[in-house]
Design brief:
Elements: E1 19-25, H1 31-34, E2 46-51, H2 55-64, E3 68-74, H3 75-82, H4 93-98, H5 128-131, H6 143-146, E4 167-176, E5 186-192, E6 205-209, E7 223-226, E8 240-246, E9 249-251, E10 258-260, H7 262-268, E11 275-282, E12 295-301, H8 305-316, H9 318-322, E13 332-339, H10 348-357, E14 362-368, H11 382-388, H12 390-398, E15 402-408, H13 412-425, H14 431-440, E16 444-448
Parallel strand pairs: 12-13, 12-15, 13-14, 15-16
Antiparallel strand pairs: 1-2, 1-3, 4-5, 4-11, 5-8, 6-7, 6-11, 9-10
Helix pairs in contact: 11-13, 12-13
């Protein structure tokens, strides 16, 4: 699968020009980037090749997409170091998959591609740091090999099925989640995976390859979706995997016509019994701690609820607890959930049932933007709820047993940081520095788009 980067089609001709590589951060999923068929899930770096005669044009384009250019280097210089120039390399597993050299047009045979611990991203694009010339120690090993530490999540299943040999699952159910009067289409889909070797754990994602060709006549690229079920599936029989999918819909910025997302539309209208191409699983960023006495703060908007649902089922559902005697959650979970209207409260009944049954262990706080007002009289967003409870959240975050998970729209991150900065400042703590510490400690988990 060939990927031209976050700005698809940009710098697609280099003849007669020197070529430069822009390192761009801050690109976010929006109406403009939705047209690229490239899922931008994290705020990591993206690298874009740009001919000299189009440098100014690309600068303006990147600015329109919300990006910031942090470095510009000659492609030839990079080639001298790396042997090749990365086209679109980011921090997320989405980018690792998207720049695979494999194509997604295999029919798939339901057989797993052999994967071992060392091959998680074999054949996939590496970050620029990984591509730098490596110094060797006296034994001839690269320094990165000599200093390698054991992966804390080495036993987590990854890339059991790859784009060139996806697993063919079947739709078991496709149920609407938005109640009457709500906005948009959001579906809970459950796939039968009993015919293969697909295994996963809470917090991971799977790839879906929609049928057909893209606008360039190439097979459609896979899209990643956070898994909404526990490792045992909704039926607690290890035979299913579930997703929470919203149909992407937006207005074309030039024509004004309504455009629907290719893969999301494909999924939202699948019928039971139909086939679906599945890859993965991928992801180690959003995994739950194994400590049953941990505290878990969850901040989600819209379908960002998917991994949170998996966490809560594992922690509180009776049938799930029955098959996990080694994990009996005794900690505290707090979900702050942002949606536009009450009918858009996805999994509302499930959440309320857990809250009713475990009032000392689970707290649900909703931000319903079009129905509730914040302290300034404006719409109530998730960051406003965080500001309301900032002092309490800060005290909880300081606890070494606390893990924080953020999933959904990237726009909420700034407001969350602002609120927690104010709370931390009361104790003379700089939030940005503290946040870096807990990220390094593996207690701050973010997957936004």
């Amino acid at each position: 699968m060939s990927n031209k980067g976050a700005v698809e089609g940009a710098a697609n001709t280099e003849s007669g020009s020197r070529v430069f590589v822009y390192e761009v951060v801050g690109l976010c999923q929006n109406e403009a980037t939705d047209q690229t068929n490239y899922p931008i899930r994290n705020s990591g770096s993206v690298f874009i090749r740009v001919p000299y005669n189009r440098m100014n044009q690309e600068m303006r384009r990147i600015t329109r997409l919300g990006g910031k250019i942090v470095s510009i280097q000659s492609a030839s210089a990079l080639q001298q170091v790396n042997g090749k120039v990365p086209l679109a390399v980011g921090n997320s597993t989405v980018n690792k998959l998207s720049v695979s050299g494999e194509t997604a047009n295999s029919e798939g045979n339901g057989q797993a591609t052999p994967v071992n611990e060392k091959s998680e991203v074999k054949g996939f694009a590496k970050s620029p740091a990984d591509e730098q010339l490596k110094k060797k120690d006296k034994k001839g090993n690269t320094m990165s090999q000599a200093k390698a530490k054991k992966d804390a999540h080495a036993d987590v299943p990854v890339n059991i099925y790859r784009p060139n040999a996806p697993f063919i699952g079947k739709v078991m159910s496709n149920e609407p989640l938005v109640k009457e009067g709500g906005i948009g289409i959001v579906q809970h889909l459950t796939f039968d995976i009993s015919g293969g070797d697909l295994k996963y754990i809470e917090g991971q994602s799977i790839g879906i390859i929609p049928p057909g060709l893209d606008k360039n006549g190439k097979p459609e690229k896979l899209r990643l979706y956070s898994i909404a079920s526990t490792r045992h599936g909704d039926n607690i029989d290890d035979k299913t995997v579930s997703l929470c999918v919203r149909q992407l819909e937006y207005k074309h910025p030039e024509t004004g016509e309504t455009v629907y997302g290719v893969c999301s539309t494909h999924l939202c209208f699948l019928k039971p019994g139909e086939d679906v191409k599945i890859t993965g699983p991928v992801g180690k960023e959003m995994l739950l701690p194994s400590d049953p006495e941990a505290n878990v703060i969850m901040m989600a908007t819209g379908t960002g609820i998917a991994p949170m649902r998996a966490y809560l089922w594992r922690q509180f559902k009776d049938a799930e607890r029955a098959v996990n005697p080694e994990y009996q959650f005794k900690g505290f979970s707090w979900l702050i959930f942002g949606v536009p209207t009450t009918p858009n409260l996805l999994y509302k009944e499930e959440l309320e049932e857990i809250q009713s049954k475990y009032p000392d262990n689970f707290r649900l706080t909703c931000a319903i933007s079009r129905e509730q007002k914040n302290s300034q009289g404006g719409r109530m967003y998730i960051q406003d709820r965080v500001a309301e409870h900032a002092d309490e959240l800060w005290q909880l975050i300081k606890n070494e047993k606390t893990h924080t998970y953020i999933c959904g729209l990237r726009g909420m991150e700034g407001g969350i940081d602002e609120a927690l900065s104010a709370a931390a400042a009361k104790e003379g703590v700089t939030w940005s520095d503290y946040q870096k510490e807990i990220k390094k400690a593996g207690r701050w988990h973010v997957e936004t788009y």
